[in-house]
Each structure stands twice: as C-alpha cells, then as structure tokens.
Amino acid sequence: MTANVLILCAAGMLVTAYLMVGQKALFTTIRLYGLQSFLLGLVAATIAIAESRHELFITAALTVVLKAILIPWFLMRTVDRIGIHREVEPFLNVPASLLICLGLTVVGYRVSTAFQEGARGVGHHLIGVALSLLLIGLFMMVSRKKAITQILALLTVENAVFLVAVGVTSGMPLIVELGISFDVILAVLVLGVLVQRIVGRFESMDISRLSKLKG
Amino acid sequence: MSVEALLALVAALLQAGGMLAAAPLLRTGIKKMKARLQNRQGPPLLQGYYDLAKLLGKESVQSETASWVYAAGPRAYFATVVAATTLVPVLVAAAPLEATGGILLLVGTLALGRFALATAALDTGSPFGGMGSSRDMTIAALAEPALMLGLFASALSVGTMNLGVLVRDLVQQGPSWHPSDLLAFAGLFIIVIAETGRIPVDNPATHLELTMIHEAMALEYAGPDLALVEWASAVKELLYLTLLVNLFLPVGIATGFAPGALLVALGAWAGKVFLLAVAVTLVESTNAKLRLFRVPELVSVSLGLAFLALAIRFL
Fold first, then answer.
1. Nearest residue of B to residue A99 by CA position?
2. Could A18 and B304 be called an inter-chain contact, meaning their C-beta atoms sit closer than 8 Å?
3. In angstroms, rounded to a whole number, what is the distance separating the alpha carbons of residues B52 and B28?
4. Do the chains contact at B179 and A7, CB–CB below 8 Å?
C-alpha cells in the first residue's frame, strides 16, 4: 500500500513536470508547480506514517504550506503585478523540448539502476523520477527566457533533490530541512524582487535582454 | 453457427444497444454540470434524447451537388462506432466480439469512421466542410499514435493486445501500480479530450467559423443524418471514457453473467464514468480554447507521456 502511494505520487510529479514543459501560460505553470510540491508533501507524509517517523510530518507540513501554497501565491502575485502572463517564445519549441525531456527521463531512469537502492522496487522509481525531474528542471532553466519560468525550474530541481532525500535516504536532520526551506523561500523572495526590477528596467521578463546591459 | 458464437452475437447486440441508449445521457450530463458551474440551470437530463427524436423525425435535406459519398458518410461513421463498442469490455471482463481483434482493430475501426465522415464533409464542396475535415485530420494524425502508444503501455502490464483478455487479467491481478499507468492515463485523458472535441481543442457549443472542427464537418447535414452523426459522436465519447476507466481502474467489473454481479458492475461503471465526466467538465470549464496551431503542442505532450509510459516499462 505504502509503495503504491509512493509510486503514484512520484509518477504524478513527473506528469506535472511534463505538463510544465508543455505549457506557456505562466499561471498554469505556477499551479502545476504547486501540485507537484503537494505531491512531494504527500510522499513525505506517507513515509512518516509507514515508518512512524514523526519528524517527517513537520517536513510534510512545511513542504505543503511553503511550496504548495505560499510560494505559488507569491509568484502569482508577482506575475499579476507585472501583467505579463505568457512565455512568448522559448528558445526551443514545445515538441522539441518534450522530445529532449523524454530522452532526459530515459537517461534518469537508466542511471537510477546503478544505485544500490535503485536496482528494484520503490527505490528504483523514486530515484528514477527524481533524477528525471532534476534533468528536466535544468533543461527548463536553459531553454526558457522568462525569469519566472526559470525560478520555477530552479524550484523543480529543488523538489527533485528533496524527493531523493525524503524517499530513499533516511532523511536529513530537521534543522537542515528547516534551513533549506527558509533558504528556498528567501531565494524565491529575492528572485521575485529581481524579476520586478528586470521588468521595471526593460519592460519585459525576457532575460536574454540582460546581455544588452554592457556599454 | 455454434452456441458460443450465437451467445457472443447476443452479447454484442445487448452491449451496443446499451451504449447507444446511455450515450446521449452522458453528453447532456456534461452540459448540465457545465451549466451549473456557470450558475445556469442547464438543459433537462433527457434533452439529448429529445434532440435525437426531433432530428430523426425530420425529413432529410441535401445539397444538389452531393453524391452518394455524402449520404454514406454519417451511416458509415455510425456503423463503425457501433461496431467499436463490441470490441471493448464494459460491464463484464470480456468484450463480446473479442475473438475478432484487439487494440489495433479498435483504433482502425474508429479511424475508418473518421475517414468516412471527413470525405463526406468534403463531398458537397462547401468551404466549411473542407476546413473541418482538414482540421480534424490534422489533429487525428497526431492523436492516433498517442492513443495507440497509451493503449500499448497498458497492454504491456499484462502482455496481450486483446482488450477482453487484458481487462480480465487486470481484474484478476489488480492494478499493476507502476508509474507507467499514471503516465499513460494522463496521456490518454488528453487524447480523449482532443478526440471528443472538448474545450481546449474544440468547442462543442459553438458554430463560430474560425474555431469549429467537428461542427464544421456536420454543418451540411440535417435531420436524420445529423442525428446519426451526433449520436455516433456521443457513443464514441462514452466508449473512450469506458475504455479509460476499465483499463486504469479495473474495479467492480463482473467476471461472470450472474445478475447480482452485473448490477454491481453497472453501478461501478456508471460511477467511474461519472467521475471521469466530472473531470472532463472541470477541464472544460477552467480552460480557454487553444488556438488551432497550439493544439499540436497539447497533443505532443500526450504523445510524449504515452511514449514515456511505454519506455519506463523497459527501464
């Protein structure tokens, strides 16, 4: 039962990552990130119940409150203020991006079998999904122009690392997790302000314009 | 004719009749739920039947330039969809005519119907018909491979392409709990929305020239011909939803023909289809229609998911 819920949540996270790649509307992408974080919280809660590790409940609650509610709300407010709602044109079109993400997922899954825990069972799927998410996040960071999408890509990478930390290892100490959580929210706040400054200066979120700063 | 073949024939007739009877209710049900979400009253639940009765009672009008292809189109479309219903397990974990073929035959039969309707829409030479069939074919060319890949991914969990055997084994061993299932389900759900002309792809409630796809193909038809096209489309929608729930949520499906088990299966089937219909309604109510040139992006997402579902089984 536990294994089934874990696999279902991990697969759900992968699906949301794919939908994020295939999406251009910023609001939907942010909502998908919220859903992904919620599933991550569900993974943590499931492990907490199954192995009766109560400190993981705090992790799960922190994940849901911060990453599934607070950060999406803040990012949506930023987008609303700026008034730019769409990724105009990424460096690569959607079908090509999806094709690359397919390849990245295959690589992630293949590599996961090299780990001792990843050879079979739930660990295989968790590590496979996490590595795929990591690669997809990195890919989104280099292939998108909008600053908000890049923040979301960074957060996806963070989710991937968290998934491995919670699902496969015995988990990080609570103090480290608290530190990471506040790190993330601080990063999002700073990046949100940065985005507003970029828009204020260039009247666009297109970060490829930043290279025109010189001279 | 042997007794078994006769039984299969009777079961096929019953199943096709049942699907034909239930399909208009699904269409109206989705319309009604959508209306309630918009704070409107919506049509009465039986409106689909009234509409069909009204259309069937009218005389058939056709253009002077129309040939036999025009008249054959709706009939062939209707016939292929009805034939397709006998290839899918609905209440019992066996398809009535499963001996004739599996996934490939199902996809092929539906493609034949689509071809018949598209050529018939071209026949009168009306610009809207041509536009509609060209758009429908564009989407179908992308959606069909995704549909097949998604179904293959599901077939791999058991190792058979025959839908009857597939559902039977799934009922016995339970869901396989593999990430591939969820990926394939997500991919197929997008395909169902694209194939049934629901909102991110097509809008069933409008006849606006620039956006319509399915409606453009049916624009030239009136009376009984139109009734056949609409009825067949409704049955096709019910068929896709049934396929989805029975492959990915094989719960409550009867394994024999005992009346009690059949009643339970009927309730379970209706409940599962209703849940999926609610999901379709929510998608339709919360999304805006995509521009036509953005539709291939959506369908390529589902193609990607379906391919991934297939690939993960081997990794």
1. B304
2. yes
3. 12
4. yes
> Chain A: residue nearest B182 by CA?
A11
Chosen for mutation from B142, B178, B182, B295 (greatest number of chain A CBs closer than 10 Å) is B182
Question: What are the structure tokens assigned to A210, written together?
Answer: 């930043």
Give the residue from A183, A153, A189, A163 showing the smallest Cα distance to A73.
A189
Looking at the structure of chain A, the number of domains it has is 1
Q: Closest chain A residue to B142 measured between Cα atoms?
A: A95
Domain segments of chain B: what residues? 3-51+86-100+139-208+226-312
Is B141 near chain A, with CB under 8 Å? no
User: What confidence score (pLDDT) does residue B27 get?
Assistant: 93
For chain B, where are the alpha helices, taking DSSP H only?
3-37, 47-57, 68-85, 103-123, 127-156, 163-173, 179-195, 214-217, 223-248, 259-286, 295-312
- Which of residues 25 through 84 in chain A touch B, CB cutoff 8 A? none
The parent domain of residue A111 ranges over 2-213
DSSP annotation string for B75-88: HHHHHHHHHHHTTS
How many C-beta atoms lie closer than 10 Å to residue A172's C-beta?
16
Neighbours of A14 (CB within 10 A): 29
Tens-binned pLDDT, residue by residue, of chain B (315 aa): 688 889 889 999 999 999 999 999 999 999 999 999 999 999 999 999 999 999 999 998 888 888 999 999 999 999 999 999 999 999 988 888 888 888 999 999 999 999 999 999 999 888 888 999 999 999 999 899 999 999 999 898 888 889 999 999 988 887 777 888 899 999 999 999 998 888 888 887 777 777 788 888 888 899 999 999 999 999 999 999 999 999 998 888 888 888 889 999 999 999 999 999 999 999 998 888 888 888 888 899 999 999 999 988 887
Q: Mapping DSSP to helix (H, G, I), strand (E, B) and coil, where does residue A12 land?
A: helix
Question: CA of B175: which chain A residue's CA is closest?
Answer: A4
Q: Say yes or no: A119 contacts chain B, CB-CB below 8 A.
A: no
Q: Do the chains contact at B181 and A11, CB–CB below 8 Å? A: yes
Q: What is the DSSP letter of B2?
A: -
B304 contacts in chain A (CB < 8 Å): 18, 22, 98-99, 101-102
Q: Considering Cα of B288, then B293, then B298, then B302, what sign does the dihedral take?
A: positive
